[in-house]
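Pilot study result, target chain (474 residues):
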Amino acid sequence: MDIENLIHEAFQCFNRDENENALRLYQEVLLIDPQCSKALLGCGVVLAEIENFQAAIEYFSQAIQFDPNDAGAFAFRSFAYVRLGNLEDALNDSNRAVNLEPNIRGYYRAKAEILVNLKRYKESLQCFKQVLQLEPEDSEALRAIEILSDTLLIEQFLPPLEELADKLDCAFTIFDEEHRGIFDEDRKNVLRTRIVPISDESSKLMEEIDRPLENKPLEILLIYSYIQAVARGCGAIRVYGVDAGKERLDESRKYFSQAEKIAESSEDLIMLKRLNLKRGAIIFSLYKTWGTEIFALQNLSIALESYSWLSSHSELLNSEQEQLVCRRLIEVNTAITARGNSSTDDINRKIGDLARGALAFNLFESFGGLERLNAAFEYYSWLNSHSELLNPEEKELVRQRFTEINATLKQIRDYTDDTDIDLDTHTSYGYLNLSTNKQIALGVGALGVVLLIGGQWFIGLICIGFVWYFWQNY
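Predicted structure:
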């Protein structure tokens, strides 16, 4: 059999995955003609297929030695170098292949992928653009260009935005101090000299990205939205007029919502913690500044949602943050309850019951307590019977919670019926009755008094706050 027939038969064996036969036939050709580039390439390709990349490189190198203008040999050897992790040699061979055959888009694609692995994104982007010039409908190249463009923007703009966000966190501290009043000059100076410049600088950076806001990379949009949300929230705290404060707060809420959606989609719990701490602090500070009479109940509910989320993710908090969240949860819920009970307006009641129902339900899930479940049932029952006040998202939430609470109450009734247990006095099955809660409250109150006498004012006051909260609500 002549050389051409042997090469053809070897190629057919390779296509049938008969790699051993293919390699044997190519080697037979080399016994006849040791300089046959097709056989050398064939041996290299078969060896690469069975992942013997070092041996494959030796055959590709021999083929190049006998035919230095064979672009395919450089391309194959480049692939083998990549698989061995030798990216620099792979790039050198890829460059040779592109120079020898500049109209083969596969060579540009291979070079582009090597450059991505080397984190040389600008050069990789140019290679993928070359692929598009050769084949404008190449969807993979289009997608790669989109990803690389975003990567380059993130490399350029994300670090300075993150630096601005860190500076904002430092400047924000004064707005989280509860004792400061509406005309506080320190807050005014911090807002004017630190926070507003940070907000302006972030906006300038975003303007440099020549894309519509919705098309900017999400990583960048997340940090920018965070900066704007916090900055506008601080502005709402510091302005003298209520109407102007509400306008700033509406702007802040829009950016908080945008940032939260991005963080939730990427499951970024650290950013969600950061957002909820700032949003809760801004609303709480506004409540302290303007008081409950002119501060909308809806805003207090937002603070309650933020602190409830933080309470349910306490593993993300340090001890100081845990204490802060616990104390503010009690105070915000007390304010909501006071306003909700004194208001006959159905909208206000809706807002209050949504917040109180969520809190009671979350406490029940975390700590049990039949009285908590019954409280949540009452709130969601009223909401369910006034569904015309709810938006579609609220309707779905109320429906789900109402159904779940009903099912749980049915399970409890079935359990107590089967075991002949008095539901009003029995404390097993994970639920505490009313008298038990008050006994616990008295114990905690006694501990609080001891701590106050011993000079532990902060922890003692927290204990007293818990006593008051449990006594009022349970």
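One observation from the pilot: The radius of gyration is 34 Å. A full batch analysis is planned for the follow-on phase.
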